[in-house]
Each structure stands twice: as structure tokens, then as C-alpha cells.
Amino acid sequence: MNTDNKSIVRLSPNAEGFGDTPDELDAEDFSSGIPMQHSYSYWDDDDIGLYIGLWDTEAMVEAGGTYACDEFMWLIEGECQIKNNRTGTVDTVKAGQAFVIPRGYDCQWHQSGYLRKFYVISEHPEEGMPAAPSFEGIVIPQADAGLAEVADGTPFVITSGARPMQNLCYVDTVGRFSAGTWATGALESAEQPFPYHQFAYLIDGSITLINAGGAEHVFNTGDAFFVPEGTVCRATTNGVRLYFAAIKSS
């Protein structure tokens, strides 16, 4: 996808052409046999190491090791187990949940059946591997997490209505990648360039983003979207709660 296009991207779990061409995989990346996997890119930028897309896999076990990126995932179908290689602890994540694997976390992915997910991968080429991850384990945002008011309304400049609330459950070691739960009551915002890259999955409610040309993008419960940094838009909603992953270019 052309990342020069600063436009709002709707993500579908059934993208046209997804599944037509299997990914090319290396045996050394697996402790099991090589599975069938597919990827679909909605947005990518090699300059900042940011990749947004759709991915699936059959049953498999990846080779364990240090996770090379910060990755936010929303599981559409299936479940997976992430093993902590230092402690042996295994975390299970199921369809309908979001989670983050921190960059630098020593872990191993175990897959017992089919899985499909949205992914947000951040691996900035100028960032070295941290001496230790910002969190020693996976991080699972909670839909009912306690929220604190976002004083400046970020990512929007509020012109009327409620102040947004959020629970920031994950921040990487350099403060570039963050994730959590965000919610607001009815509000309207001013038109502005979006302050950072953001993926969102709507837990509840509806939000409309209006771009600089006046086109309306309406997102409801169960929808996912991505807004590239610098995209000029404004927002209106009668109330919404969502999971987010936000990434700064620098």
C-alpha cells in the first residue's frame, strides 16, 4: 500500500485476495513442521518499521527467542498460547481479545489450531533491541479497565462534548509505541492532522471520522480502522469504547 496516501483505512477480516497466496516460510523459524500461513498488508512503512495487516496460521510451534518487535494483535478467530521461556509460564489468548507482545520478550508462540488476527507491528530500524522488555510478559488490554481523563483530548482537539478517557496499559522502552483502552461520551472535534499513527478496534458504540474532503467514515461495534499520522480529519460520536495501538514516527 502507498503510505504517502494520508487516508483513513478500514480493515476487514476477510480482505479480498487474502488466503490466495501462502507466505514463504523458513524451517528454522519453527520448532514444529512448517505451517500454512497467509498475510495481507493494509499499510506498511519500511522507513519507520510500521506494518498493519491481517494474518492467519495453521497449528504450529515457533522457534523460541527474543521477540523482534512490539506487536499489538486483535484475535479474530482461534486462540494461541505464548510461553515465557525464562519462567515456563504460558498465557492463553482467545478470539475476541487484544494483546501486546513487547519487543525483547523471550517467548515462544504455540498454536494448537487455526488462528486469524489483525496485527500492528512496530520495529523502527533505528531502535536497537532493548536490554530488557518494558514488560516481562504479554499485555492484555481490558474492555472494562478503569479509565482516566485525557486532559488535552488527545488524539482530538475537542470543540464540544465529553473529554476522552483512557487506560494506557502498555508503553514501549522508548515511548514510541503504546496501547490500551480509550472511551468517550458524545463529542465533536476540530479538523486537524492526526498526531500519530493509530489502529483502533471498536468494543462498543460508534464513531464517525470525516476527512478533509468531507467524506464520512462510520465505524461501529466490531469494526477496525487505521489512521496514518498526518491524516487530516475530524471526529463525531455519541459514545464509543475501543482498543488502540498508537505509534509515533519519531
Task: Please tell me about this protein's structure.
The chain has 250 residues and is mainly beta. The chain is built from no helices and 20 strands. The protein has strands spanning 9-11, 37-45, 50-57, 60-61, 65-66, 70-77, 79-84, 90-94, 98-101, 106-111, 115-122, 148-149, 158-161, 165-171, 177-189, 192-193, 197-211, 216-220, 224-227, 232-247. Strands 1, 12, 13, 14, 15, 16, 17, 18, 19 and 20 form a 10-stranded antiparallel sheet that branches. It has a 5-stranded antiparallel sheet with strand order 2-3-11-6-9, with no helix packed on it. The radius of gyration is 18 Å and the shape is globular. The two termini are 21 Å apart. The model has no long low-confidence stretch (mean pLDDT 96).
Blueprint of the fold:
Layout: E1 9-11, E2 37-45, E3 50-57, E4 60-61, E5 65-66, E6 70-77, E7 79-84, E8 90-94, E9 98-101, E10 106-111, E11 115-122, E12 148-149, E13 158-161, E14 165-171, E15 177-189, E16 192-193, E17 197-211, E18 216-220, E19 224-227, E20 232-247
Strand content: over 45%
Radius of gyration: 18 Å
The average pLDDT is: 96
Structural class: mainly beta
Helix content: under 10%
Shape: globular
Compose a concise summary of this entry.
The chain has strands spanning 9-11, 37-45, 50-57, 60-61, 65-66, 70-77, 79-84, 90-94, 98-101, 106-111, 115-122, 148-149, 158-161, 165-171, 177-189, 192-193, 197-211, 216-220, 224-227, 232-247. By secondary structure, it is mainly β.
